[in-house]
Each structure stands twice: as C-alpha cells, then as structure tokens.
Inverse folding.
C-alpha cells in the first residue's frame, strides 16, 4: 500500500519529495496527540507542531466549517474577522507591536519581513545563522546554508556560526559565547557595508530551533542586539517554531530571551493546520512598508483563515495550554535526564516547554556526534508507534515538539519507548 503511494508520489509529484522514516507513515486520521495509519495503528505524535491545539480540535474544525459555509473572500472587502483576530493576536505582544500583515506561509512572512527591513533602513544586507531555515521563496532561500541556492549566494547575504551551547564558540562559561556571536555579527555587518549593499537586518529564530535549540540564558542576545542597533539595522524574530506559548514560560520566544525585535514573523501552528501566517510589527514599521511596497495577498487574512486562527488562539488561552507546556515540558526534560543516567549516548538534554530533546554522542568525552544512531532511534521509535525526529548542526539532536495538549502520561510512554529503543539500537 505505502509502496504504491510512494510510486504514485514520484510519478505525480516528481523526485526528491522527502518523507520521514525508512518506512513512511500513511496517516489517515488524527485526534488530540494521536494519529492513525491506514491499517488502523495508533501513533503518539511527539513531533507535529502544526496541529498546535491537538489534531482536529473540534473548536477549530467548527470555526472553519461555520465560516466556510457563510462567506470566504479576500481582504479587498471589509470584514471584521481579520480585525478581531489582529486585535487578539497583538494583545499577546508587548508594546510597541500593534499591527499585523496576514499571509499564508512562514516563507511569505519572512519574505515580507525582509522588505519591511529594507523599507526601514533603505539597505538590503541580511545576516542569518549558518544552520537555519527561514523558508522557500527566492529571497529567503538565500538564507539557507543547508540547502544552497543554485548560482550561489547573493552578495547581500552573510552568515554567522549557529549558536551551540554544547560546544560554545568562545569557550565555556559566562557570556563568552554570547560575545563571540555578537562579534561574528559585527564582522558580517562590516563585510556587508564594505560590499556597498549595507546592513539591513539580522534574522533569527529566538529559540534557534533549526540549529538544535541550544540552551541559551535570558539576555544571551543582548550583546548582539547592541551591535545591530549601533549599526542602524533591525532584528527580525522568526517565531514560526517557538511562538504561541510552546516554550511554556512566555508566549513568544523573544519574550523568553528578553529582547524586543523590530519585526516578528509566525506561521506553522497559527491556525492548527489551516495555512495562516503573519508579520507583526509596530504601526510605524507597517506604515513604512505599506508606503514603500504595494502588497496584496489573495488568500492572506481571508475570513475562513481568520476564523481558524482565532479559534486556535482562543483554545490555547481557554485550555491553559501554555501552562501545560511549562509543566509537561519540565517533566519531559526530567525524564530525559534520568534516561541519560542509563544511556551514555545522551550527551546533552535541552529544551523549553513542549520543545525538547537530547543530543546524542558516540562518546561524552569527545562529544562526537552520533548522527547515524539518532536516525536509527527515530526509525525505531516509529516502529514502536511514537513519532519524533532529529535536527541540529550535526543532525544528532532528537527533537520533540508535540501538540500542546501533550500530557505527563504521554511523556511516560515516550520515555519508556525511548529507553527500550536505545537499549536495542547499537551506538554507531
Ligand atoms: C524557522 C522557520 N521559518 C520559516 C519556515 C517556513 O515556513 P513555511 O513552510 O510555512 O513556509 C520554517 C519551516 O519549517 C521554519 O522552520
């Protein structure tokens, strides 16, 4: 069955359409933190952040159906849906964030954010980390070091080493790592200025999720923020991964890091699977962008999307899912730390709220990445009915980022299964 589907995919969609796992899962149904495959087998979903408030949450389904049965148009007509939603969304921010632009994907949001930064600074130079992913438009694809663009990188793009708390640049202890990162940003600013395009923006995920979510203390970005401000640039916080309460202690990743970006982008979990994304900015920034660029997005901010996004936000708030992320995430980290007492392959346990995992090493002394091992673990977990994955600079970090209603009981199942899979998988 799945072989037939794989062949049809290749024939109809072309080659190189990636799938997770050696034996890809053919999902047919989801509810809460579980999904079921075509054979009726249940899986615990420890990975998917798009169904933020749980697969097929009835309130979101109902909101989508009701609005779809009433009206769906675009934003050139007047409708309260987008206004009510932007009011509710910006209320989760601190000042001065009070406006939003609605679009459909995180890639679009970051693409718009880059142009907002251009409108503010009059310059085009962009700095990103060397192990990030910000999306797939032509402009943001330029920021992807792990998937280089054909024809090479534009002169207006510069990279800095991804933060790595397990092997910190500048050495262990204190803020040396933070200052080393800021110095690398300064060097790239100087290079962009020398090339003539000038420095416009530093774009980063405030949780450095794709980089392997290093364990960075609050204030870690302060020296970098100072460097960017001194150069007259702006900071884009890509909250596609850490936003909407996932980190538990704060609603947004930048709030947890303790800095105020200039522009914030979001997507993935925003409408529980319906394609909704946004750029949130202070009113002056939005005005500068709107005056400089004519921007219209046919599907962005349509009434059905806004109803889905509103229902998702209300469920996060009404069901206390941020507090759940704080509690269950701490419990999961504790479980992983206990597992590290039994398995030497766990070199480091990291995370915040319901975004956590462990870095796997061949040997703790050398910290040599156990990349093949972590891949085998992900496949072993899938065989035992638990879905998770891996990422990081060396692709050796087990990554878990489940739907937000994830419970302590779900953690117990995940830890017990991981214990068994680690015991049966040879370290290589
Ligand atoms: C940090 C980050 N930004 C942006 C994106 C792109 O979002 P989308 O796939 O909705 O375009 C992703 C997708 O994985 C992401 O991880």
């Amino acid at each position: 069955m799945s072989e037939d589907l794989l062949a049809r995919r290749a024939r109809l969609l072309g080659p190189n359409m990636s799938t997770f796992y050696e034996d890809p899962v053919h999902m047919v149904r989801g509810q809460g933190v579980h999904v079921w495959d075509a054979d009726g087998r249940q899986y615990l979903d420890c990975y998917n952040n798009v169904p933020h408030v749980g697969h097929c949450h009835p309130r979101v389904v109902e909101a989508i159906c009701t609005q779809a049965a009433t009206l769906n148009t675009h934003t050139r007509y007047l409708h309260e849906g987008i206004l009510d939603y932007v009011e509710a969304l910006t209320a989760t921010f601190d000042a001065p964030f009070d406006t939003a632009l609605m679009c459909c994907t995180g890639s679009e949001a970051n693409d718009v954010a880059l142009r907002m930064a251009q409108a503010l600074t009059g310059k085009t130079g962009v700095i990103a980390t060397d192990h990030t992913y910000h999306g797939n438009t032509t402009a943001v694809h330029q920021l992807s070091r792990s998937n280089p663009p054909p024809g090479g990188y534009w002169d207006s793009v510069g990279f800095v080493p991804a933060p790595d708390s397990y092997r910190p640049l500048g050495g262990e202890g204190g803020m040396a790592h933070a200052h080393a990162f800021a110095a690398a940003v300064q060097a790239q600013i100087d290079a962009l200025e020398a090339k003539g395009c000038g420095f416009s923006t530093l774009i980063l995920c405030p949780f450095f999720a794709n980089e392997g979510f290093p364990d960075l203390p609050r204030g870690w970005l302060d020296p970098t923020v100072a460097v960017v401000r001194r150069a007259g640039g702006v900071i884009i916080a890509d909250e596609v991964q850490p936003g909407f309460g996932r980190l538990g202690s704060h609603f947004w990743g930048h709030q947890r890091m303790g800095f105020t970006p200039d522009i914030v982008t979001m997507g993935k979990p925003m409408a529980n699977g319906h394609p909704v994304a946004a750029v949130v900015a202070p009113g002056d920034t939005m005005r500068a962008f709107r005056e400089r660029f004519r921007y219209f997005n046919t599907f962005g901010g349509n009434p059905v999307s806004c109803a889905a996004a509103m229902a998702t936000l209300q469920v996060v708030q009404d069901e206390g899912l941020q507090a759940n992320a704080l509690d269950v995430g701490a419990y999961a980290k504790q479980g992983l730390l206990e597992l590290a007492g039994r398995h030497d392959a766990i070199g480091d346990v990291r995370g915040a709220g319901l975004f956590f995992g462990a870095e796997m090493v061949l040997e703790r002394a050398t910290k040599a990445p156990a990349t093949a091992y972590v891949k085998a673990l992900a496949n072993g977990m899938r065989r035992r009915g638990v879905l998770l994955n891996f990422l990081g600079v060396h692709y050796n970090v087990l990554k878990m980022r489940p739907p937000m209603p994830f419970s302590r009981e779900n953690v117990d199942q995940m830890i017990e299964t991981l214990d068994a899979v680690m015991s049966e998988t040879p370290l290589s």
